[in-house]
Design brief:
Structural class: mainly alpha
Distance between the termini: 38 Å
Number of strands: 0
Low-confidence stretches: none
Largest sheet: none
Shape: elongated
Strand content: under 5%
């Protein structure tokens, strides 16, 4: 299962990279607006990498913020693209929110497993 989650995370990162640096006409558009599209994409990236790299979540989040900054800077050399501080801030913040959601999901699952484990042991005799 871990391999599938990691593969999904990296495929999602590749798709976001293409959407960020690829030709503007090939980028998907929605009714969310530019900030909404960025937020959705990067919260999913943060969530996917947060679930894929549970034991290294903090390091993965730090590396993600750095790579998001580099991705934004690379737009200076991509035709038809523009680097903006606002985009970086939205992308980095929502990626971190995705990592936080992954941590919260892990915490909830750990609590549920513990309560199921206690309940399955039955009454003490």
């Amino acid at each position: 299962m871990s391999i599938l989650v990691r593969a999904f995370a990296w495929l999602l990162a590749a798709a976001v990279t293409f959407a960020t640096l690829g030709p503007p006409g090939l980028r998907p558009h929605s009714d969310l607006g530019q900030d909404g599209e960025h937020a959705l994409a990067f919260i999913l990236v943060g969530l996917a990498f947060g679930l894929a790299y549970r034991k290294r979540r903090l390091a993965a989040a730090a590396v993600s913020v750095i790579l998001i900054g580099l991705l934004e800077l690379m737009q200076f050399w991509a035709p038809g693209r523009h680097a903006r501080l606002e985009d970086f801030l939205v992308d980095a913040a929502t990626a971190c929110a995705g990592f936080a959601l992954a941590a919260a999901a892990d915490w909830v699952m750990t609590r549920l497993r513990a309560s199921v484990s206690v309940a399955s042991e039955g009454p003490a005799e």
